[in-house]
Design goal:
The structure is a homodimer. The first copy, chain A, is of the alpha/beta class and about 325 residues long. In chain A, helix 5 links the parallel strand 3 and strand 4. The mean pLDDT of chain A is about 95. In chain A, helix 1 (about 5-15) crosses helix 8 (about 150-165), helix 3 (about 55-60) crosses helix 8 and helix 5 (about 80-90) runs parallel beside helix 6. In chain A, the strands form two sheets. In chain A, strands 1-2-10-7-8-9 form a six-stranded mixed beta sheet, sandwiched between helices. The N and C termini of chain A lie far apart (about 45 Å). Chain A has two domains: about 5-50 and about 150-300, Rossmann fold (3-Layer(aba) Sandwich), CATH 3.40.50; about 55-145, Rossmann fold (3-Layer(aba) Sandwich). Chain A contains 14 helices and ten strands.
Chain lengths: ~325, ~325
């Protein structure tokens, strides 16, 4: 399988540059002391639509030829990718359809609608998402842009790490949440291409540990039910992302629900950043496995900040 | 009265540089559209101790001669200035005593203690704060560093605007919250010195509108009771800050409690920044008086982010 190389990632960066934000890298002395390492938070919750997902969606939508683009884009998403596709299509002036499971966070569903996409509801199970997406494609046509099983999307997500390593070149480790593996794959490809000695670590909720178990058992597990507060981390890997992660990722560290909520609260109180639970899993994993990170310079992808302020988990 | 000039502000910036953060300037397309102007948020909630107050306190503490410093520092504060003095004194290795009213936010009181300062409680009324502070000074000696009625403190607060205008030189307006007036005075002195045509606007809760009324009546009002969620905005001006503000500030715009809470929520949801109510009053005032700001480039000082996540106002 052909994975995006550094050229593809740099092309993606140039393609999205007119539309995406260069997000800041934030630091906190008190979190550094707590974690026993130097933390550099790449703040993708400050990206457009409030999540890194805009990078991959924008790269994919902007790389379509005009004839393909005119037929519109179809995707499935539990939230942030859907909003990202909706915004990228609005910028390009083409129609977007997003298949969204009933379990999606209210605030993310509202964003998809606000950006003018058509929303098609489906059940939570991956099989139903796939079935409904296939039906929509059969009925209306259009280009499928999968939330993570897509080289254009992975190249886009990789641009966050490109920026992070331009800002702070001498990192020892990169930590990113893993769900379908698009962000972690992009992080790994960009990180290893720019700095071969860097260590790549995934962070995953215990309640959705399919990537962890897939890596441990060296086979792709797609039938584990997910049960976690992290509404962005309930997907499982694809063959493509499993292949990238198997090659480049040193470990996937787990965190419990209580550890994720505690880390989220720390990020709000100490870093003053309103991040969503799916973003907090990275810090939770670092605090749970301090020996891996002690004394090192650690880049952390804060993946998103779309959280319902009326339903905070504390 | 002698007020800090540009030289004094630049000296303060150099003095605090080894200790203070250069805070980022954050932007949000959706807030720009909502406000009808271009907003540049100088993010002082990301300053050390989570508030701009560290600038003034650090400048004052670091400018003491060794003999004076050795006798320690005494101050009165409802919170952030107390934590700032405590941290600055810890860095310098000298004792700090902070007189704190019972009404102080729990999280701010904890920070003062965590930084190793002695806490002396007092009643909420300004007269009692002053009385207890005078008693502490009489008993133990030490240097009084007032939270705002102090040229060293004002010069320190002014460094936030120095950085903001270095980052974004072509602003039309600067908006800062006003309580005792240290931040607004510093903002005005730096803003007018660097860019004489800039307009300076204060933002104040309706429930603590003494600065607004002082400006309107051209006399210093110190006997209005304050009733607002903004625990950092309950002080009144001093002769010194009233003089600076009378010379340089175009207007003080008011905001209701509901408008402040709504603006705080917008800053959390759209800018993803966990700011305290006292910081949100600036955006609330902008949204309440859109005609003043329409189409202009507006610098906004987000003054602090110390908020109790268990007591959010929505």
């Amino acid at each position: 399988m052909h994975h995006p190389d550094l050229d593809a990632i740099r092309t993606a960066a140039a393609r999205i540059a007119p539309h995406a934000h260069v997000t800041p890298v934030l630091r906190s002395g008190s979190l550094d002391r707590l974690a026993g390492c130097e933390l550099f938070f790449k703040s993708e919750h400050l990206q457009r639509i409030g999540a890194f997902k805009f990078r991959g969606a924008c790269n994919a939508v902007m790389s379509l030829d005009d004839a393909t683009a005119a037929r519109g884009v179809v995707t499935q998403s539990s939230g942030n990718h859907g909003a990202a596709i909706a915004l990228a299509c609005r910028i390009r002036g083409i129609p977007a359809t997003v298949v969204v499971p009933h379990s999606a966070a209210r605030i993310k569903l509202a964003a998809i609608r606000d950006f003018g996409a058509r929303v098609v509801p489906c059940e939570v199970a991956q099989a139903d998402r796939t079935r409904v997406t296939a039906r929509v494609l059969a009925e209306q046509g259009g280009e499928l842009i999968h939330p993570f099983d897509d080289a254009r999307v992975i190249a886009g997500q990789a641009t966050a790490t490109l920026e992070l390593l331009q800002h702070t070149p001498d990192l020892d480790v990169l930590v990113a949440p893993v769900s379908g593996g698009g962000l972690l794959s992009g992080t790994a490809l960009a990180g290893k291409a720019l700095r071969p000695q860097i260590e790549i670590v995934g962070a995953e909720p215990e309640g959705a540990r399919d990537a962890h178990d897939s890596l441990a058992q060296r086979r792709l597990i797609v039938d584990q039910p997910a049960d976690t507060i992290c509404d962005g981390l309930r997907a499982h890997l694809s063959e493509r992302t499993f292949d990238i992660i198997s090659r480049h990722v040193a470990a996937i560290e787990l965190a419990s629900e209580a550890q994720i909520v505690a880390a989220m609260r720390l990020l709000w109180e100490r870093l003053k950043q309103a991040v969503e639970p799916s973003a907090a899993v990275a810090l939770a994993a670092i605090l749970r496995a301090p020996e891996r990170f002690r004394g090192r310079r650690v880049g952390v992808i804060l993946s998103g900040g779309n959280v319902d302020l009326d339903r905070l988990p504390w």
